[in-house]
Amino acid sequence: MELCIQNLSKSYQGKSVLSSLNLTFQGGDVVGLLGKNGAGKSTLINCLIDLVAPDAGQFIFNGQVLTGDRLAFKKVLGILSDVIPPIPEFTGTDYLRFIGLVHKIDAVTFQKRSKELTDFFFDDTNMFNKTISQYSTGMIKKIGLCGAILNVPSMLILDEPFAGLDPVAVKQVIAFLQMYRRPDRIILIASHDLNYVEEVANRILVLDDAKIKFDGELTDFTAQGTKVISEALFDFLAPRKKVMTFDWI
Ligand SMILES: Nc1ncnc2c1ncn2[C@@H]1O[C@H](COP(=O)(O)OP(=O)(O)OP(=O)(O)O)[C@@H](O)[C@H]1O
């Protein structure tokens, strides 16, 4: 399992968000994608999952350049992103059934996977008969995660998976990801929840000024654990010092 991103560029209204990025993801990678608000993390993900057309660049999946509908790649993809939320008019059960149909998962396999996933992530299974429009933020995230995993994706992409989850749910997601990572799977997690990222990632990517500022092992990023991850990120991003001039406070 290998995905190469070559010379990926994207601008919005003349402002470069991604500038000639080159990256390779390999099986076993659990990547924490970090960066400030507006750094381009979601744009990178959206280009990767074919929601946003890049200005330039190509994706090479297992040696094949992805073109057209990229179906071979999408079949092995699992995505959790607020940009494509679970359909609010569906019940949780219907939503998972819909995902199962999209991936042509047979009925017996579907029953087993959906039951085991929902039993793991949810306490109150009565909710599955209610429409997703009645779910809380965390419940929407969890049903979205169940949907993302249903096809047992080789590439699992999670955009802000921890945002809106209570601490118990976060623990469940982390435990699940620790179970899910394998030498033949890639997990890409864009998140600001650095301590949670640290519990699952083995590789860190930092995006800043449309470029990759850091790409390496988590242990190198934190200088063999001598820095906490937030401090390490702070060092890379070196934010401008702003002078406080609130004379009205
Ligand atoms: N559809 C769009 N039209 C115009 N500009 C956009 C669009 N989508 C994103 N941008 C701009 O691209 C830049 C990167 O946005 P993006 O959402 O990728 O950042 P991010 O790193 O995911 O941020 P955050 O951490 O806040 O989620 C921002 O300046 C944003 O305003």
TrEMBL record:
A Pfam family: ABC_tran
CDD domains named among the record's database cross-references: ABC_DR_subfamily_A
Every ABC transporter domain range: 3-234
Record-level Gene Ontology MF annotations: ATP binding; ATP hydrolysis activity
PROSITE patterns named in the record: ABC_TRANSPORTER_2
Keywords, ordered alphabetically: ATP-binding, Nucleotide-binding, Transport
Domain of life from the UniProt record: Bacteria
The keyword ATP-binding is assigned to this record: yes
Protein name per its UniProtKB record: ABC transporter domain-containing protein
Organism: Spirosoma montaniterrae
